[in-house]
């Protein structure tokens, strides 16, 4: 797991004035909206007796603990302890970690790290999220494996013919070969484009949109640090674009927040059909991903056998190793890290900032 990046942690529509627990990075976070509609992100653990603040309630833009009613501001500072007499001062340690958040593209992004503002990686540019010609659906997919395996699965070009042979991969039956391609390095990610000149009809929902014989299909696969994948499929008559933010819940569990865009078959009533098909394809991936061992991708690049079609996933491994070597890795045991919110949490130094766009 990596620090110093913006992590998608939830869909904006799912965050309300009712506190919501988020499991990510081997930790518990709590999200809620204050009276101005801004998202607040705090550590989901009261410093008094460890109760989950997500079981509490919002009051005057602050969060009340469900156990003893301690009241915490958006910056994590406790401002009220009901059991105390008015003259008793609130302990300086009576505070919880707070986190920077942004809302963009209908998603809530949480910054996790210790970089100053001018050195933080940006939220990636995702143009389809603001394109009125695109119709979208969203889904949560839980995978019981390490997030690096889930990301690599999304970047793998050669598995489609086998794993998705009864769905999208059926169109590769005549020619499953992956021609040599080039990986392009970008400032905060990687990208590769491949072409399939003899793609036939897939099985399932999208079969009617492909020509009777053969279609030239162009696939552009991208990765944005720390955990976002994008697979864009252009088949001439339309585009299908699959984004996924792969949340590392812990070392054995990943929650993929998937957003699929299409510029064809854009009827609202078709959303349910598309969502069911997306779920079907996702389950095909999960079945294989959950069987992989070891669960995390090997740290040694030579531990696995690689072939030319693995160029993109190998580039991902190298990119990840680059940031681990810079000291941007997170301890697998969260109890070993003293402060994980990326800011100096001093008694009167707020660590919360909210942006909206």
TrEMBL record:
Example GO molecular function: 2 iron, 2 sulfur cluster binding
PROSITE patterns xrefs: RIESKE, RING_HYDROXYL_ALPHA
Keyword Iron: yes
Limits of the Rieske domain: 6-110
InterPro entries assigned: ARHD_Rieske_2Fe_2S (IPR015881), Cholesterol_7-desaturase (IPR050584), Rieske_2Fe-2S (IPR017941), Rieske_2Fe-2S_sf (IPR036922), VanA_C_cat (IPR044043)
Domain of life: Bacteria
Record's keyword terms, sorted: 2Fe-2S, Iron, Iron-sulfur, Metal-binding, Oxidoreductase
Protein name as it appears in the record: Rieske (2Fe-2S) domain protein
Annotated organism of origin: Coleofasciculus chthonoplastes PCC 7420
Lineage: Bacteria, Bacillati, Cyanobacteriota, Cyanophyceae, Coleofasciculales
